[in-house]
Amino acid sequence: MGRTMTLPLWTTAAVLVAAAAAAVAFGAAAEAGPQRILLDTDMDTDDLLALLYLLKQNRSEFDLKAVSISVNAWSDAGHAVNHLYDILYMMSRDDILVGVGGDGGISDSGTIYPNVGGYLPLIDQGMTTVGGCRYRQAIPLEGGGRLDKDTNFGIRRGFLPQGDRRYIPLQQPTAQQVMIDTISAGSTTVILTGSHTNFAIFLMTYPHLKTNVEHIYIMGGGVRSKNPTGCCPKNATSCTPQQCGDHGNLFTSYYTNPNAEFNIFEDPFSAYQVFHSGIPITLVPLDATNTIPINEEFFNEFQRHQSTSEAQYCFRALKMARDTWFNDQFYTSYFMWDSFTSGVAISSMRNDKNGKFGNDFAQLEYMNVTVITSNKPYAMHDGSNPLFDGRTTPKFGLQKSGVHSGHVQTGITDSFCLVKGSNKGRCEDGYTKEVSSPEAAYIRVATKAKPNMDKYSPLNREFFKSFLEALNLRENSGRFNIKTQFPLKREALYNPDFIKNQKVGRPVIIDMDMSPGDFVSLIYLLKAPIEVIDLKGILVSGNGWAHVASIDIVYDILHMMGRDDIPVGRGNTTALGTPTLGCNYASIIPQGSGGFIDSDTLYGLARSLPRSPRRYTAENSVKHGAPRSTDYPELRQPLAFEVWQSIKEQLDQSEKITILTSGPLTNLANIVLSDRNASSVIEEAFVVGGHIRDENDSKGNVFTVPSNRYAEFNMLLDPLAAKTILESSLDITLIPLVSQRKAASFQSILKALKHVDHTPESSFVHHLMLLLHDLQQKHQLYNHMDMFLGEVLGAVYLVEGLNIKPSSQPKPISIVANSTISTDGQIVVNKENTNSVKVLVDFSRVEYYNRVANSLGKME
Predict the structure, then answer these.
(1) Mind spelling out the 3-state secondary structure of 538-564?
(2) Pairing of strands 441-449, 362-371
């Protein structure tokens, strides 16, 4: 059952009454045992420091019961949840509940169904996990952004041990389940260090459980803050201030919104619900965190004091953040955001319980604050606000001309927010503003970090001392890291032992978006005889079915197959011709079940693969454009275009490259557009994707965009790239959807795999196929699983050729691009087009399935 929500208007009096009631309840609960804590985190670098600081506290005082993950901010669900499991395993805390995601929705009328996953801001949440990135586009996708957070700069896989807990489809507890179970079990303090989506949904759906929430500690916002970064040096004559003096810290969007801080900006409407919930709140905004930067003295002390695994892990992350910082101002622009908040929370909880007032680490005062969710003039209805636009009755029972009814920022380049002649915007979405109106919530606010009481210490803040002491305590310390967990395991690279002067087949590059079908295709190519196929390199797309951090799965597959010699290039994370900050077209992929969370974990199976010594890393060098060289620049992750150039340079004069694409055509289009000679060395391109309408008016497969009836995912994920390649002079063989569907029988492939020898790779593929088939039968969210199975046809056709008895036809085609989402990516047969592509129209199914299974079962 869902709940139709009508939001109350909280008054200051109501807040005070609720606070008093909660205080009484708290006093009774305090005597019963340790104070229970629930942390909602976005697993950013500083969140890791906050988490480990909490885990190091004396459990007789403070007991972290659960962690829920905020998945619409700095990290992606699949990577974040397994990262968290590994940290908890290291710290011997597998007892802590972990919640992430969920596939519930909110109806157009405002009914909230169970287990809304928090993938989208509340204002944009519909009935699925498909949607845009109105606010999240402010967070970079690559260096310094989500890629580095998902991998912890590449440190995570080389350091953390791996336990038994992992993401498993349809079994992973959701964020809402964990919040409900934890808070309903007893009085709980909630700490929020990410967006507020998860907790706002909880409060709106289960208001009767508010009385069990003792206090909320929030890192976020800026009330009276003045940003100290982006300022011009004194006496500078040719410097333009950037963020200097802003309330907020949106370094990607200060020219449209100088007022918001990232955590609140990721979902302002949810933050408003939390602030106005009537629960006592302590806010740790930029006002306070700006006064506790990671200075050089603290950094050096941390470097000298790393006596536990958790201290080592935190320092390595912090050091890599410093070494890859975009300018030379790290020590004045990187602050203890979430970690300081955890310290403020612990100190207040301890002092409140002991009847003391004040906080050991921060100066506190009460203020009247609200969260701005829309911009004046109110009730303007300009198409930016789905809570009001096109509705006779506002969603959630909101007031027609109230504070939520104005223009809502549509993105970081919203023209409404621009001020002519100024580099500072006017939008206030997410601004934690001090007000005197009835809209105010009366909350406690940290205004400044307290200085260290020890004047002779090199540490100038009291919390610096507490943080380093806590992380280096022997009590509650981590059991081991990956090297001490497996002391006999060596990080060895495995390369094939080819016979000297052995005849090799045609050079091949596979360009993949890391869907499950792509990994089967990769294994199939690796099993092909070297005399037939010489796999030279792999390019991965970051704008397809998996986030780019999933490149580590590619490395693990290669390691399993003994092919650590094959280079892997990281491609773009956005479609051709679209902004580097954004999610154009990639937003058509579900973020929950059957989408990103499953692809990023290979449906829970990625952790069963052997762990490769190779992995994504943020290591870099000045030579490649970095502001400074890191400690191991030779480990730098190559880009897709660099791998292409390297392979091309190694070719003999008579050699040409065959390319297999099984994802959006972004990488190949970039190669063709950036390398004038690319076409002359590409012998043939096998393109898996596209849909050509037939006499039966068959439909495409983009089930998430019902208005686009004839597109196929790989084409729609980057229509301009598809147009660039398919309308070029390249020799192209197209494996369209109609052919893929003939190769998409789970029953047939599973039957064929039953009768072959069991190799590690055939067993892995068999397990993956069984899992996908089982999920498809169990839940409608997995109805499209056979779509991935059909993608393997491209690799099989490339290797087997005439052996599968193919039938093809030349067709002159063109691609619809830069039109509308309802028509982009569609293929049109255009007889006026002078170029044509070969289209695979049929093949022998029996031969196909037998050859796939037999190849995987070969012992070579």
Answers:
(1) EEECCCCCCCHHHHHHHHHHHHHCCCC
(2) antiparallel
Quickly tell me which residue has 């059957």 as its tokens.
594
pLDDT band (50, 70, 90) for residue 240: confident
- CA-closest candidate to residue 295, choices 228, 240, 221, 362: 228
CB-based burial of residue 571 (10 Å sphere; 0-12 exposed, 13-18 middle, 19+ buried)? Answer: buried
Find out whether 794 and 517 touch, Cβ atoms under 8 Å: no
| pLDDT digit string, tens, across residues 78-121 | 999 999 999 999 999 999 999 999 999 999 999 999 999 999 99
Q: Which of 138, 277, 257, 167 is nearest to 213 (CA)?
A: 277
Q: How many CB atoms lie within 10 A of CB 197?
A: 29
| pLDDT, mean over the chain | 93
360-394 tens-digit pLDDT: 999 999 999 999 999 999 998 999 999 999 999 99
- Strands in 657-662's sheet, in edge-to-edge order, are 568-570, 533-540, 506-512, 657-662, 682-688, 732-735, 837-842, 807-811
**For 402-411, what is the mean pLDDT?**
97
Contact 543, 570 (CB under 8 A): no
Instruction: Give the start-end residues of each E strand in 50-139.
Output: 62-69, 97-100, 111-112
Amino acid at 47: D
| H helical segments located in 125-165 | 146-151, 156-159
- Would you call 178 exposed, middle or buried from its count of C-beta atoms within 10 A (0-12, 13-18, 19+)? buried
CA distance 547 to 591: 10
Residues 6+ apart with CB under 8 A from 108: 126, 395
Q: What percent of the chain has pLDDT over 90?
A: 86
Q: Are 100 and 172 in contact (CB under 8 A)?
A: yes
Which residue pairs from 208-213 have beta carbons closer than 8 angstroms and sit at least 24 positions apart in sequence? Answer: 209/180, 209/183, 209/184, 210/18, 210/277, 210/278, 210/279, 211/21, 211/22, 211/25, 212/183, 212/184, 212/186, 212/187, 212/188, 213/22, 213/183, 213/187, 213/188, 213/189, 213/279
Angle at 250 between CA 244 and CA 253, to 5 degrees: 95
State how far the Cα of 697 lies from the Cα of 710, in Å rounded to an integer.
Answer: 9
Give the rounded distance of the alpha carbon of 353 from its chain centre: 38
pLDDT of residue 239: 83
Identify the burial level of 306 via C-beta atoms within 10 angstroms of its C-beta, where 0-12 means exposed, 13-18 middle and 19 or more buried.
Answer: middle
What confidence tens digit (pLDDT) does each residue in 649-671 have? 999 988 999 999 999 999 999 99
d(CA 274, CA 132): 23
One DSSP character per residue, 505-542 reads -EEEEEEE---HHHHHHHHHHHHS-TTTEEEEEEEE-S
- The tokens for 105 are 């929705």
| Beta carbons within 8 Å of 680's beta carbon, 6+ residues apart | none
Tell me if residue 335 falls in helix, strand or coil.
strand
Tokens of 400: 């027609």
Strand partners, 569: 539
Chain centroid to Cα 448, Å, comes to: 32
Structure tokens at 516: 């499950």
Nearest to 222 by CA among 280, 271, 262: 262
Q: What type of residue is 214?
A: E
Mean pLDDT across 173-199: 98
Global confidence as pTM? 0.94
